[in-house]
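This part of the workshop introduces the protein records we will be handling. The structure tokens are whole numbers drawn from a learned vocabulary of backbone shapes. The record below serves as our worked example for the rest of this section.

===
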Amino acid sequence: MNTIKTLPEFATLSELEINAALDAYDDSVEEEHSSCGGGEENEPTPESPVVAEVFRLIRAYTDRMNTLITEAKEQNREISENFLADLFAFEPEAPIERVAFDFVTDAVLDEEEDEN
């Protein structure tokens, strides 16, 4: 996870600025969905570079987690609670990295709860 970094122009943004951009994106998606019938296939691409960077980081973290899990399975290693704990112990450096990583860990934890 340490190799995933934000682009320099986003590194100094505060969580408040990032969340404001995400909220504005959510509002635009809700407005567009209500006018076109909704559906994930109609989800607009973010016009905000901040939102685009959050999405890029989410994809990168998700891809990295999937790679680590696949490698563990290929080596016939069990994916233990410690494995997930180690992944979740990662501390992103920039606020935008933290926001993106939180989305990923929340999704994993939600999926785990759904399975139980």
In short: Residues 13-115 form one domain. Residues 69 and 83 are 9 Å apart (CA to CA). The helical segments are 15-36, 49-74, 81-88, 95-115. Residues 49-74 form the longest helix (26 residues).
